[in-house]
Amino acid sequence: MTTMTQPRVLTFRRSIRVARVAIVAFLVLNLAAVQVMFAAAGPAGDLFGTIGRLLGLYLALAMAFQLLLVARLPMVDRAYGMDRLTSWHRWTGMAIFWLAAAHPAFVLLGFARQDGVPVLDVAVTLAKQPPVLLGMIAAGLLLVIVALSIRVARRRLSYETWHAIHFLLYVVVLLGVLHQVYEGTAFKVNVLTQAYWWGLWAFAIGALLAGRLVVPLIRNSRHRLRVAAIVAESDDTVSVHVTGRDLDRLPARAGQFFLWRFPGQNRWWQVNPFSLSAAPNSRSLRLTAKGVGATSAGLRDLPIGSKVYAEGPYGAFTAAHRTRGATVLIAGGIGVTPIRALLEDPDLTGHVVVLYRVRAVEDAVLLGELRNLADVRRARLHLLTGRTGTGYQPFAPERLLALVPDITARDVYVCGPDAMTTSVLASLRRLRVPSRQVHAERFRLAG
């Protein structure tokens, strides 16, 4: 990997600003287009029906936006990072759920008031029509997805199971499109509205197929990734070295992650987002994982030479997003993997301080490599051990300031358990570290 020159860094930052402006403009224009279509269609039979029609338009628009988030478009990923996009994915999903509940409710109320019959009777009558029934089934599946995505339920599911359940989203989209074909009225006002509406959906579905199917298939066919070596880092942590063809053409950067599948060893839906634990080069890639799920626990048993299917790279947790000359890298547990890769990255210039949080020294995976890299680049490495309690808060504001007195003048990269990351981010806010200097990776993946 070649080091990014200052002009290249400036060009990258300008491209991010342009991308963000384009994304915001896309959202605003589509919201405006929906309002124009709604106005052109005119009111429905009564107020409730009119509100139901408007909510239906916003529901369909939100579903199209959700497809674009799940597509993981490179431009959007580079501009905002997968962690922020996943947060938007969650909020968009909740909006879709409430719109899916409110849209039919207002439509039913509208028909009930017009015909002077009970709402339940209207629901039974409409359910006998296949297009309406498809919409009801889609709403029911949405209820299942949202219910299983609530934090309490999510914690009881393995990542692989939760990821597989999210495939129901595609079924919901299919049913929703069929429902629009037969029941949509507001976008059928004229040829222009129909061209816009189906153009938007064609773009969303095309982006999804390209980003999640076509591009990964082409890349994996080109690079032909294979397991080159398995190295046990501790009793429950293993590194997998992956080799392949023309890896210099793979646009991966230190700090990014891939979705990894191992055909023949795991089922096709068993996939995990593992960060690169070393800066990528033209010869190999390396991932390091702790055995907590079905996929990660089986990594140490992978045969040498077995096939690897990787989707990505993803994430904006890279040196290209720095805004200052010096950096703080904060890692917790297995979250050290992208931090270790960043420490090796020649693009991460300037002075670096590394804070590595573990309960005990024996839990510090890749500690030897961190120490060697810190010595080479004259970085400061602090290993923070011990149990967090009332008397010991390793990432309290005053503690961070004692370890890194000039932390407000540095970029801060944070990766670790969710509780630790939340604590660090809260302390950085109290220390008034500008948000543009804070970069976090939580591995809350969309779709």
Automatic annotation (TrEMBL):
<dbReference type="GO" id="GO:0016491">
    <property type="term" value="F:oxidoreductase activity"/>
</dbReference>
<dbReference type="Pfam" id="PF01794">
    <property type="entry name" value="Ferric_reduct"/>
</dbReference>
<feature type="domain" description="FAD-binding FR-type">
    <location>
        <begin position="220"/>
        <end position="320"/>
    </location>
</feature>
<feature type="transmembrane region" description="Helical">
    <location>
        <begin position="164"/>
        <end position="182"/>
    </location>
</feature>
<keyword id="KW-0479">Metal-binding</keyword>
<protein>
    <submittedName>
        <fullName>Putative ferric reductase</fullName>
    </submittedName>
</protein>
<keyword id="KW-0274">FAD</keyword>
<keyword id="KW-0411">Iron-sulfur</keyword>
<dbReference type="GO" id="GO:0016020">
    <property type="term" value="C:membrane"/>
</dbReference>
<keyword id="KW-0812">Transmembrane</keyword>
<dbReference type="GO" id="GO:0046872">
    <property type="term" value="F:metal ion binding"/>
</dbReference>
<dbReference type="GO" id="GO:0051537">
    <property type="term" value="F:2 iron, 2 sulfur cluster binding"/>
</dbReference>
<dbReference type="Pfam" id="PF00175">
    <property type="entry name" value="NAD_binding_1"/>
</dbReference>
<feature type="transmembrane region" description="Helical">
    <location>
        <begin position="47"/>
        <end position="70"/>
    </location>
</feature>
<dbReference type="InterPro" id="IPR050415">
    <property type="entry name" value="MRET"/>
</dbReference>
<dbReference type="InterPro" id="IPR017927">
    <property type="entry name" value="FAD-bd_FR_type"/>
</dbReference>
<keyword id="KW-1133">Transmembrane helix</keyword>
<feature type="transmembrane region" description="Helical">
    <location>
        <begin position="21"/>
        <end position="41"/>
    </location>
</feature>
<dbReference type="GO" id="GO:0050660">
    <property type="term" value="F:flavin adenine dinucleotide binding"/>
</dbReference>
<keyword id="KW-0408">Iron</keyword>
<dbReference type="InterPro" id="IPR039261">
    <property type="entry name" value="FNR_nucleotide-bd"/>
</dbReference>
<keyword id="KW-0001">2Fe-2S</keyword>
<dbReference type="InterPro" id="IPR001433">
    <property type="entry name" value="OxRdtase_FAD/NAD-bd"/>
</dbReference>
<keyword id="KW-0472">Membrane</keyword>
<keyword id="KW-0560">Oxidoreductase</keyword>
<dbReference type="InterPro" id="IPR013130">
    <property type="entry name" value="Fe3_Rdtase_TM_dom"/>
</dbReference>
<dbReference type="InterPro" id="IPR017938">
    <property type="entry name" value="Riboflavin_synthase-like_b-brl"/>
</dbReference>
<feature type="transmembrane region" description="Helical">
    <location>
        <begin position="91"/>
        <end position="112"/>
    </location>
</feature>
<feature type="transmembrane region" description="Helical">
    <location>
        <begin position="194"/>
        <end position="215"/>
    </location>
</feature>
<keyword id="KW-0285">Flavoprotein</keyword>
<feature type="transmembrane region" description="Helical">
    <location>
        <begin position="132"/>
        <end position="152"/>
    </location>
</feature>
